[in-house]
Design brief:
2 copies of one chain form a homodimer. Chain A has 435 residues and is of the alpha/beta class. Chain A folds into 3 domains: 47 residues, Transferase, Pyrimidine Nucleoside Phosphorylase, Chain C (Transferase, Pyrimidine Nucleoside Phosphorylase, Chain A, domain 3, Up-down Bundle), CATH 1.20.970.10; 247 residues, 3-Layer(aba) Sandwich (Pyrimidine Nucleoside Phosphorylase, Chain A, domain 2), CATH 3.40.1030; 89 residues, Pyrimidine nucleoside phosphorylase-like, C-terminal domain (Aldehyde Oxidoreductase, domain 3, Alpha-Beta Complex), CATH 3.90.1170. Chain A is built from 17 helices and 13 strands. In chain A, the strands form 4 sheets. In chain A, strands 1-4-5-13 form a 4-stranded mixed sheet, with helices on both faces. In chain A, strands 6-9-11-7 form a 4-stranded antiparallel sheet. The longest helix of chain A has 17 residues. The first copy, chain A, is globular, with a radius of gyration of 22 Å. At the A-B interface, helix 1 and helix 3 of A face helix 1 and helix 3 of B.
C-alpha cells in the first residue's frame, strides 16, 4: 500500500476500505506516513467527506492506537455522556451525579477546555482539593462503589487523536464532520462505556451554527457508535444564549449545586432532565426518556442527586462542605454591574461574546497549558425574555481587577440585545437521533 | 501573516492576494512554512483552483525564488518554445535551428525527460560529444553568435518549483491546472526570452487527454505570460498517435535531421512549420503564422536550417558529421520487425503504449538520474491510414537484447489498431490562443 494512492483515491471521491484507513492511521502514528501526506489526505477528506463506514473505520483505527479502559467489572450498563460544548455548559456537573443517583453507573473521562471557560475538569478543580487525576484502578473502583467518577483522560489513550488534531489545527482541516465525529467518538469508545449519550449543540454559541449542521454531525457520531456496538443516542440542543446564568468555573459549580438542589435556572434543569432521561433509557433504567426525566426529577426533589454529588466530591478529595455552603468556593474580589443602556425586553444574548468576555477575565484559556482562574466570570441577571429598566443590571462581572472587570462589562453590555417585545420562544431541544 | 489563514482562505474558495502568495512561497522555500501546511494548501488549490491573477502571482513568486537569465544583450526578440510533451516529440530539435535560420534568436533551456523517452537534452546527447552543460555566459554568447543554443537549466533557477514539485509528487496534487501552468511558466520566465510559444498536446499520448482540457491549461499559461509582460501564444496540437515515426533518442535525432533536410515525416514537418510560423510572428519576423511558415519552408529547402543545426552541434562540441551521415549516431545491435497480425488499414496507434515499449527498451527513465540508452527505440513503418498486408512489418524495434526486443515487439503490435477502412483524418492543430 502507498499513502500516495490513498490520498489520490480520497481526492477523486472514492471510499477507502477499513484496511486502507487503518494502514494510513497506523503509519501516521508510527511515522512511516509523513505529516505532509497526512495533511494532504485530511484536506481531501475536508472536500470529499467520508462515508459512515469510513468514519467508523477511522475511529476504530484511532481507538486501537492506544490504551482503552476496561469497564467489564461494572455491574449494570455504564453510560457515558459527551457535550459538543457551549458557553456556560455545566450539564456534566449536574448529570453525572443525577443519573448515578438513579442507579445508572456514569464513568466520565473529560478533557481540559480550550476557549471561553475551562472544561469539566477545570470547573471541578474550582472545588478546593478536588482531584481529577485518578488511576484506572481508582477510577473503576470509585464507579463500582458510588456509581460515578469524573477524571482526566490518560495520554496513553487515543494518541492518534492527539497527533491528528495537532495537524488539523495548523492545516485548516478542523471543520470536517467525519474528522470531528471520529475525534470525539474515538475518546468515548476508548473510555469503555457500553452506552453513550451525545449532546450536540447548535446556534450562535456553538461550533455548529445551525440545527441541520448539528444533525449531520450527530448522525455521523451515532453511526460510529452503532458500528462499534455501543448503544448511542444524540440530542440536538440550542445554544443561542448562554446555558443557565453562570459563565465561569466556580460560578458554574455553584449553579450546578443549586440545580441539584432543585433551585437551578429553568433552562439548565430542563436540558439536564431531557439528557438524563435519555441516559436512563440507554442504561436500561427507563423505557422512555419521559419516564427517565420523571425519575430524575424525583431524585432532585428527594435530595438523592445532591447527596450523590457530595459523595463524588468527597471520593475525589474535594471539600464537600461547598455543597452546603457554596461561599467556600473561590470568589473574585470585585463584582461589577452591567447597567442596561435602554429599557425594554432582553431579546437575545450573544453567547459567544459573553464567553469571550469570561475568557478575557481569565476563566478560559487561549493556549494549551494556561492556568485558568477559578473565581472569575459572568452571571446573567436578566435572561432572554426578561423586562429591563434603564440602568438596571443585566449581568454581574466577577473580576480580579477593575480594569479587566470594566472591559468585560462593556463587552457583556454589547452582547445584550434589548428590544420592545420579547422574542418568540424557540425550543431548546431541536431533535434526537437514536442508534 | 499566518499560513493557517491562507490555507483556510483558499479552502473556502477565496482568491489570495499577490502578497499573500509571495509570502507563502518565500516561507516554503526558506522553511518557515512547513511542508505539511504547503501540502494542505496544494490540496485546497487542487479543489478550488486559482484565478489567472493568483496563478501569475504564484509564478512570479517562484521565478523570484532563484536566479534568472539576462538576455538583454541579445539583438532581436528572442523566442523560447515549450512543449507539454508527447511520444516521439522531437519538434525542439527541428524548431530551434529552423527558427534561428530565419533570424529569430532561440535560447532554449531544457529539462531531462521522465517517462517514455528522454527529454530534449537526452536526445541531443545521443550525438557524440554534444555538451548541454553550458555556463550562462557561454549560453548567451552562443545565441549572440549563431542565433541559438540548447542547454540544461541550472539548479539555481526556480528552486521553488523543484521543491513544490517534489511535494506535489507525493501528495497527489500534480494534476492541477494552475500548479502545472505555474511550474512550466516559471521556468520559461526565468529563462529570460521576451516571447514564448507553447505547444500544448492533447490526446491519448499526452498529459491532457482532451482538447478542452488542453485549452484550459493553455489559457492559464498564456495569461501568466501576459501578466509577466512576455508575448505568449499557445498552439493546441493532437497527440493521439506518436509524432513522426521515431520514438527513441538517436532515432529521433536522425528523424530531426531528415526533417531539416526537407525529407521528414509529413506530420512532423507540418507541425514544425505551424509552431515555427508562430515563433516568427512572436519574434517580429512575420506578420502572420502563414507568412512565417512559408519563410521557414524556404529555409528548409535552401539548406539554411540544416546548416544552422550543424552550427549548433559544432558550437556545443558535438560531432557535426552526424548531419551528413546519421549512421554515426549510436545504433542498437538488434532490429526486429513487428509483423502485422491481420490485413487492413492502420486505424490507430496507441502513442502511450508505444512510448512505454520504448521506455522498457531503455530509451526513457522511470526514476530521476537513471541513464538512458541513446540507441534503442521504435520506428513506425506503417503510420495511421496506411494499408498493411498480413505479416508485413508495422514497426521496427531497435533493441539491446533479443529478450527486450521481443517483449517490445509484442507491446507495439498490440498498440496498432487494424481495421477495414482508414479513419477520418483529424486535424493536428486543434486551436491557437494568443496573449
Amino acid at each position: 500500500m502507498r499513502a500516495y494512492d490513498l490520498i489520490q483515491k480520497k481526492r477523486d471521491g472514492a471510499a477507502l476500505s477499513a484496511g486502507e484507513i487503518a494502514w494510513l492511521v497506523d503509519g501516521f502514528v508510527l511515522g512511516s506516513v509523513p505529516d505532509y501526506q497526512m495533511a494532504a489526505f485530511l484536506m481531501a477528506v475536508y472536500f470529499r467527506g467520508m462515508t459512515f463506514e469510513e468514519t467508523a473505520a477511522l475511529t476504530d483505527a484511532m481507538v486501537r492506537s492506544g490504551e482503552t479502559l476496561d469497564l467489564g467489572s461494572l455491574a449494570g450498563c455504564a453510560v457515558d455522556k459527551h457535550s459538543s460544548g457551549g458557553v456556560g455548559d455545566n450539564t456534566s456537573l449536574v448529570l453525572v451525579p443525577l443519573v448515578a443517583s438513579a442507579g445508572v453507573p456514569v464513568p466520565k473521562l473529560s478533557g481540559r477546555g480550550l476557549g471561553h471557560t475551562g472544561g469539566t475538569l477545570d470547573k471541578l478543580e474550582a472545588i478546593p482539593g478536588f482531584n481529577t487525576a485518578l488511576s484506572e484502578a481508582a477510577f473503576v473502583e470509585q464507579v463500582e462503589r458510588i456509581g460515578c467518577a469524573i477524571a482526566g483522560q490518560s495520554a496513553a489513550m487515543v494518541p492518534a487523536d492527539a497527533q491528528l488534531y495537532a495537524l488539523r489545527d495548523v492545516t485548516a482541516t478542523v471543520d470536517s464532520v467525519p474528522l470531528i465525529a471520529s475525534s470525539i467518538m474515538s475518546k468515548k469508545l476508548a473510555a469503555g462505556a457500553s452506552a453513550i449519550l451525545l449532546d450536540v449543540k447548535c446556534g450562535r454559541g456553538a461550533f455548529m451554527k445551525t440545527a441541520s449542521d448539528a444533525r449531520v454531525l450527530a448522525e455521523a457520531m451515532v453511526a460510529i457508535g452503532r458500528e462499534a456496538g455501543r448503544r448511542t443516542a444524540a440530542v440536538i440542543s440550542a445554544m443561542d444564549y448562554p446555558l443557565g446564568r453562570a459563565v465561569g468555573n466556580a460560578l458554574e459549580v455553584a449553579e450546578a449545586i443549586a440545580t441539584l438542589r432543585g433551585e437551578g435556572p429553568g433552562d439548565l434543569e430542563a436540558l439536564c432532565l431531557v439528557l438524563g432521561g435519555w441516559m436512563l433509557v440507554l442504561g436500561g433504567r427507563a423505557v422512555s426518556p419521559e419516564e427517565g426525566s420523571e425519575e430524575l426529577l424525583r431524585r432532585l426533589r428527594s435530595g438523592d442527586a445532591l447527596r450523590k454529588f457530595e459523595a463524588l466530591v468527597s471520593a475525589q478529595g474535594g471539600d464537600a462542605r461547598v455543597v452546603g455552603d457554596p461561599g467556600r468556593l473561590p470568589s473574585a474580589p470585585l463584582r461589577l454591574p452591567v447597567p442596561a443602556p435602554a429599557a425594554g425586553v432582553v431579546a437575545g444574548i450573544d453567547a459567544e461574546a459573553v464567553g469571550l468576555a469570561a475568557m478575557q477575565l481569565g476563566a478560559g484559556r487561549t493556549r494549551k497549558g494556561e492556568v485558568v482562574d477559578p473565581a472569575v466570570g459572568v452571571v446573567i441577571e436578566r435572561p432572554a425574555g426578561a423586562a429591563v429598566k434603564v440602568g438596571e443590571s443585566l449581568a454581574t462581572i466577577h473580576a480580579r481587577s477593575e480594569e479587566a472587570g470594566l472591559a468585560a462589562a462593556r463587552e457583556v453590555a454589547a452582547a445584550f440585545e434589548i428590544a420592545e417585545s420579547a422574542p418568540a420562544e424557540a425550543p431548546v431541544i431541536r431533535g434526537v437521533i437514536r442508534g
